[in-house]
Amino acid sequence: MIKPNQSTAPLLEVxxxxxxxxxxxxSFRAIEDMSFALRAGEAVALVGESGSGKTTTAMxxxxxxxxxxRVSSGEVRxxxxxxxxxxxAAMRPHxxxxxSVVFQGAMNALNPVHRVVKQIAExxxxxxxxxxxxxxxxxRELLELVGIPADRGSAxxxxxxxxxRQRVMIAMALACxxxxxxxxxxxxxxxxxxxxxxxxxxxxxxxxxxxALILITHDLSVVAETCDRAMIxxxxxxxxxxxxxxxxxxxxxxxxKLLIESIPNPATGKKILRPIPxxxxxxxxxxxxxxxxxxxSFAMHVCTTDDPRLDPxxxxxxxxxxxRSLTQEQKVAAHx
Length: 336
Ligand code: SF4
What we know:
There is one protein chain. By secondary structure, the chain is an alpha/beta fold. The protein contains twelve helices and twelve strands. It has two domains: 170 residues, Rossmann fold (3-Layer(aba) Sandwich); 79 residues. Helices cover 32% and strands 22% of the residues. The longest helix is centred in the middle third of the chain and has 18 residues. Iron/sulfur cluster binds next to loops.
């Protein structure tokens, strides 16, 4: 695994970011108080079930929130400069040249009526001011870089396999040489073999180009293969953060433990996929106290009233009353 240089200043800082969605005139909090930093060459995962806020976090960073969403507080900084993430036009110079996004479902993201070489060349012409000829040349080089023969550039998206289309998306994301790539479930729609190939490709590009990667996924096994650090998200908040090694060897939050238990592990002979009981809350019905309490077998009285904040655990952070340093008196009250 590539070791990012922890002594260097972060490329990207997300500081106390909160985002609301407006639905029928009412505001609902989608993500709350998100903070993290990303360094050059580092791969960080945002992990959680659907609706946990991971895609909203990523779209906020790229300034791609839908019209009914707004950044209610916090900021995102790139190399120390505040990004205009709530202004689509002002974000355009930053997108693709500083931060690129690889979306899931390449067939929906690619234009079906244009040849793929043209689609990769387009941002090079717009952002880098290249001539068509130079941009086409770079697009062919990028196709080779992601493992597609350059002559396949004349194909239309429907003439390529799902894995090849996803490679084209990665080539497009790399076109303006951004130091940060956000992968929004980039392998979800693919079979396991193609998924492994795409993850290997991302790892290879990361080391070749010193890319920083934010990987959004619901799949912890993908995180284990690809990332240095992971942030586990639940109901719009980070509930645990740490190195991937620590999170797998010593998960602290009950949700993280269940996520890990839910994946098959051939090393331990566990082949059965064990689902997490119950459903996560939506942004419309977030409960009081800990949002995970209806699914948590360790829930205490305090979990119904107090929302646990993210506290340091030594090398990581966790938001759970089980790990808070309660006084003896508070512990008795917690279980009452
Ligand atoms: Fe479970 Fe309480 Fe911890 Fe929430 S705060 S995860 S309900 S023990």
